[in-house]
Structure formats: structure tokens, C-alpha cells
Design brief:
This protein is an alpha/beta fold. The chain has a single domain, classed as Thiamin diphosphate (ThDP)-binding fold, Pyr/PP domains (Rossmann fold, 3-Layer(aba) Sandwich), CATH 3.40.50. 42% of the residues lie in helices and 16% in strands. It has twelve helices and eight strands. Strands 2-1-3-4-6-5-8-7 form an eight-stranded mixed beta sheet, with helices on both faces. Helix 8 links the parallel strand 5 and strand 6. It is globular and about 70 Å long. The chain binds thiamine diphosphate (TPP) and iron/sulfur cluster. Iron/sulfur cluster binds next to helix 9.
Length: 280
Amino acid sequence: MAEDTKLVYKYLRHDKKFPHVWCPGCGNGILLGALIRAIDRTGLEKDEIALVSGIGCSGRLSVYVDFNTVHATHGRALTFATGIKLAKPKLHVIVIMGDGDATSIGGNHFIHAARRNLNLTAIVVNNNIYGMTGGQYSPTTPYGALSTTSLYGNIEQAFSIAELAGMAGASMVARGTVYHASLLDELIEKAILKRGFSVVEVISHCHTQYGRKNKLGGAVEMLRWQKDSAVRLEKARSLSQEEMEGKFTIGVLVDRDLPVYTQEYRKVREAAKKMMARPS
Ligand SMILES: Cc1ncc(C[n+]2csc(CCOP(=O)(O)OP(=O)(O)O)c2C)c(N)n1
Ligand code: SF4
């Protein structure tokens, strides 16, 4: 049996939850493959992992994998994940969110999870749009782009998920694309093993909503755009600002060691226990 087929039988709820709901050619399928390959490489047992997702096309991912899973509410995946991590600190908690889920309705939770440096891995699928609900613009929809809520061109500026996470205090921030699938495996593996809040921004494509409205072609053309626009961090360092115009960097953008919330929380619990045990 081929190696990838073995992973399908091992990690997917292949006999219960398929066929999946994604459009043919959607980047979410590539991410699903990268995720199970990355988890396999960590050597963690399935029961050591909790996978939490919000609502959205990308949020469906938790339904298809055979770990401890929670398909939570839109914008609140990180709140569920925080509770799980504090109650069961030994679990490796991975959170999958769309750009709308993580940075629009869930934006406040996202920046504060990073600031607290919770020991979680957040994978944010950035397809520049609300895919599931019909193509409304999100905080990562580019200026001027068309969507069902920006029929004359988006008048808002997009922000960078990776830069936001880094500025908010995440221990590790990486960016990959679904085109660069083997790099994505590596970034997700590294993020899962990192202590502290680790974020992987996954540049993906929604050809059905965003691509069609903006005449960007189908899945193949959008994947080609990722190939042509992504620059590895090592190479980007040697390029000028003009040469980087219209391009973005991929790789590990931030990697640092900071106090981790769960550890700090344990200290508070110990201190409180000692105080309570003191005779009054
Ligand atoms: C509280 C709440 N508000 C709004 C919705 C409707 N809703 C479901 S998914 C979604 C946006 C999905 O976009 P994104 O998070 O970017 O994920 P994608 O579908 O693109 O993967 C919205 C607004 C909801 N389910 N719950
Ligand atoms: S609507 Fe877009 S994001 Fe959702 S499954 Fe289809 S291509 Fe993927």
C-alpha cells in the first residue's frame, strides 16, 4: 500500500464522513493532506491530539480526521481550544480557522491567544474571502477586489495575518501555500512541536467564490499564482522592495521562546494551593 494511502486509512474518518463537501480543486484538500503527513511525522499518537475548528469551508476539516475533535462555533474555535488546553495541558491542541473565522468575528480571540502565548497551534487558511457563505469580503480581501459585499471593489485595506500574529506575541509564525505542499508539511510539523502559540498562515484559493468573481481563473491558475508570488524567506532577504512588489514571503517568519501561558497558569495554581494550605 502506498505511504499516503496508509495515512488516509490511519488518520481520516474515511468510512464515515466522506465524500467531503469541498469544491473539486479547493485548497482545503491539500491542507488536509499536509496536516496528516505533518502529524504523522511528529510521531504523536492520535489520542494525544485535539483538533478544533470553527465554521467555514476550512472549518469542516475537523469532521474528516480521526483525532479528538470539536467542530465549534464561528469565530470561537480558539476559546474552545483554550478551555481544552487548560483542562488537559498534555494534549496537543491544533486549531483550524478560515481568514474570516480567525481575523474577523474571531479577531479579538486571535490576538489575545497570541498575546497570552497559549501553547496551541493555529492554522489559518487564508483564501481572501468568506467561502462557505457565498463570497463576502474578509479582513484579507485585497483593496479593490470584488466580492458579494463589495460589488464595486473593496474599499478596505487588507492586513497580514502572519504579521498580526507576530506583533501580538506569538512564539512562532510561519506562512506557506497549498501549492508548496511539502514545505507546508514541514511548517505544520514544526508548529505542532513548538512550545507556545504557533501560527501557520496557509495561503489557499477559493476559485469558486473569490477566483470566479475576480476573473482569476480556476484552481490551476490560482495555484500558479501562488507558485509565482511566493518567495522563500532566505531568497526574499536578498531582494529589494521593488523586486518583492506583489510578492509575499513563505517560511518560518518568527521563532522565539517566550513564557508559555499554561506554565504560568500552573504557577498561579501552585501559589494559590500553598496559600490555602497555610493555617489561618
Ligand atoms: C456567529 C456566526 N456568524 C456568522 C456565521 C455565518 N458564517 C459561517 S462561515 C462564515 C465565514 C466563512 O469564511 P472563513 O472563515 O474565511 O472560512 P472559509 O469558508 O473561507 O474557509 C460565516 C460568516 C455563523 N455560522 N455564525
Ligand atoms: S467555496 Fe471556496 S473555500 Fe469553499 S470549498 Fe469551494 S473552493 Fe473551497
